[in-house]
Design goal:
Rossmann fold, 4 helices, alpha/beta, three-stranded parallel β-sheet
């Protein structure tokens, strides 16, 4: 019998593992979570900066669990494009992994 799993870079992760990762990110995120913008029915916009895979999904879920709006940030984009998206979308915090490549480090100032 097959059970549901998320496939990530040839590594299987169960939904329980994904939920556990999301809860761990949420607990770290909760300390620094910006307040809901005044008059907005939505929570703060949180940039999700991670390569496609387990970390990306876990960070997105954690953002939703915290009541935020996930704004995907492509790790392949140059820093100038990331800066544009951050400002245009009104991102108030970023969740994810930084430092995988020199180009990405430049975008995480």
């Amino acid at each position: 019998m097959l059970t549901p799993h998320a496939l990530c870079a040839a590594t299987l992760h169960s939904y329980a593992q994904l939920l556990q990762s999301s809860e761990a990110i949420l607990s770290r995120m909760a300390k620094d979570m910006p307040a809901r913008p005044n008059g907005s029915p939505n929570g703060p916009r949180i940039g999700v900066f991670a390569a496609p895979g387990h970390q990306y999904v876990a960070s997105t879920w954690a953002t939703w669990m915290a009541g935020g709006v996930a704004v995907p940030l492509a790790v392949s984009h140059p820093p100038a494009e990331l800066e544009y998206v951050l400002q245009d979308a009104g991102v108030s915090a970023v969740s994810g992994v930084c430092g995988c490549e020199a180009k990405q480090q430049d975008g995480c100032q």
